[in-house]
Amino acid sequence: MIEAEQLTKRFRRLTAVEAVTFTCHDGEVFGLLGPNGAGKTTLLRLLCSILEPTSGSARVDGLDVRRDAPRVRARVGLLIETAGLYTRLTPREHLRFYGRLHGLSGPLLETRVETVLDMLEMTEFADRRAEGFSAGMRRRVVLGQALIHDPPNVILDEPTAGLDVMSIRNVRALIARFRQEGRCVLLSSHSMDEVERLCDRVAIIHKGRLCALDTPAALVAQTGAANLEEAFVRLVGEERLRSDLWLEERQRPRYRFWPRRHPGRSTDV
């Protein structure tokens, strides 16, 4: 179980997450939606103890992310959208490396490596160096790293980004399997269809704050929308989205080119 209570993270000039409260239960797939820059990735990093909260609290299976950070990390599998690979290592070597970081060794480690390679259909390229891998192949290896220690809680940031159709279907089936196994799954995605299909409940984040939290069907009914995508736009607000784009445009640097001044020559017109 993953819990956030009045969770807040402030940086010097920005409040990335502000007073967010929710609970993601065991045996549940909990979706996290929000525009780019809404604070989703910061929130995920707070929940797995990579970042320390400014105020509020977060717990994983009852363990506080501040006081019990090592034990929290042992109980969480984290997939971050921007995670990369060591190009000289093979997928098998990546999995062994991350398994050792989690304290696995010997036959248990090798069993977990083979299980994850088979689970994510990486057997064909398990012993190839990662240099030159496609986006989908890299994504599968990174996902495997998050799952190597068989965590009871799984946090996935855009798990199907860059995957082909068959790989997407396999990852979605894997997420459904995690639910059946009683794991707690926190899923952040820009794919409304994916969230609507997989998630038991959905939280919508905008400008670091929680805008709405309910089942996908309830959010659709609440807004009178035809689907979750339309409900999301209505809840966040088209005007607020447009104002964000306007503000982003205004904050871009402007460059002015002035005429070069020459000694003894006036630039006045």
Short description:
With 269 residues, the chain is an alpha/beta fold. The chain has helices at residues 40-47, 69-74, 91-101, 106-119, 135-147, 165-180, 192-198, 216-223, 228-236, 238-251, and strands spanning 2-10, 15-24, 28-33, 55-60, 63-64, 76-79, 153-157, 184-188, 201-206, 209-214. The model is unreliable at 254-259 (pLDDT under 50).
Describe the structure.
With 269 residues, this protein is of the alpha/beta class. It has helices at residues 40-47, 69-74, 91-101, 106-119, 135-147, 165-180, 192-198, 216-223, 228-236, 238-251; strands spanning 2-10, 15-24, 28-33, 55-60, 63-64, 76-79, 153-157, 184-188, 201-206, 209-214. Strands 6-7-8-3-9-10 form a six-stranded mixed sheet, sandwiched between helices. A four-stranded antiparallel sheet has the order 2-1-4-5. It is globular and about 50 Å long.
Q: Which strand-content bin applies to the residues? A: 15-25%
**Sheet with most strands: strand arrangement:** 6-7-8-3-9-10
Please compute the radius of gyration using only Cα atoms: 22 Å
Largest sheet: 6 strands, mixed
* Annotation, overall tally of beta strands: 10
How far is the N terminus from the C terminus? 71 Å
Task: Label the structural class.
Answer: alpha/beta
Q: How much helix is in the residues?
A: 25-40%
Element pattern in H and E: EEEHEEHEHHHEHEHEEHHH
Overall pLDDT score: 86
Shape: globular
Number of helices: 10
Residue stretches low in confidence (pLDDT < 50, at least 5 long) are 254-259
